[in-house]
Amino acid sequence: MIAAVRLALLVSAVALLAGCGGAKVERLTVSVVAQHPHDPQAFTQGLLWHDGALYESTGLLGASSLRETTVDGEVVRFRPLARDLFGEGLALVGDELLQLTWQNGLLLRYDLATFEPRGSQSYEGEGWGLCFDGQALWMSDGSATLTRRDPLTFAALSSVVVKRGSKPVTQLNELECVDGLVYANVWKSDEIMRIDPKTGAVTAVIDAAPLRRLMGAMDPEAVLNGIAFMQSTGNFLLTGKLWPTLFEVKFVAQ
CA spacing 20 to 30 A to 120: which of 19, 129, 176, 217? Predict the structure, then answer.
């Protein structure tokens, strides 16, 4: 009897350990719905879609900017950053656009309608990606950690380590918050992670390599780095640093 109980406990423990790796990670890829022109000089760092307009943050010292464009690349508004600032992730909170800087430790706030500055706030470490889930901001810094921040004060509220199974996923970059999940591209790869921010678990890996094949040979620095969700259609807009094309895609089973 005792031996049977011990055996049952052992089986339960093994089953529990087997489940610790989390649910099965979906393998997805991109199905291209449309291709749109994109400024090949734009070093894209942050991307978002709002009310039929595309908002973009670009990087590089002396070339960083905040811009509004149509889906076909026509520039509607453009605001350059100071030459010593390197633009990074971008998020929309209410009527404000929030733009990270890479190593300047400075969050920039702008009026959505006018692009006029509304002040700035400081933070520690590097700024990479940024998105707003309707309650809080999520920020990446190039590591495997996502930091949850207050949208008003930008104070850090909590953090989570992103893991694919049991392995941390580093170099998380551009972020997009969609329906309680966070999508993050991995720097210098063609992969996008779909993340449950409550646990840090990767629930799907999206292979965006087909987009690079459509464009042919590219500059080594021209990496995937731009994710925007189109609420009205459920499609995503994807582009990259120095990409000549903005792709409208659906994520489908691989």
Answer: 176
List pLDDT tens digits, range 178-202: 999 999 999 999 999 999 999 999 9
Cα separation, 130 vs 177, whole angstroms? 9
Question: CA torsion, points 93, 98, 100, 105, in degrees to nearest 10?
Answer: -100
Rg (C-alpha) for the chain, rounded Å, is 20
3-state class (DSSP) for residue 167:
strand
Query: Strand, coil or helix: what is 238?
Result: strand
**Cα atoms found within 13 Å of the Cα of residue 190, Cβ hemisphere only:** 11
Q: Distance between CA atoms of 98 and 162, rounded to whole angstroms?
A: 23
Using alpha carbons, select from 227, 231, 232, 230 the residue that is nearest to residue 246: 227
Start-to-end Cα distance in the chain: 49
* Average pLDDT across the chain, whole number: 91
| Torsion 196-186-142-134 (CA) sign | negative
Please provide the DSSP assignment of 175-217 as one string. EEEETTEEEEEETTSSEEEEEETTTTEEEEEEE-HHHHHHH-S
| Residue 55 burial (C-beta neighbours within 10 Å; 0-12, 13-18, 19+) | buried
Q: Report how far residue 125's alpha carbon sits from residue 105's, in angstroms, rounded to the nearest whole number.
A: 6
Q: What is the strand order of the sheet 117-122 is part of? A: 87-93, 96-101, 106-111, 117-122
- Is the pLDDT confidence value at 240 over 90? yes
- Give the CB-side neighbour count of residue 239, counting CA atoms within 13 A: 32
pLDDT-derived band of residue 22, with 50, 70 and 90 as boundaries? low
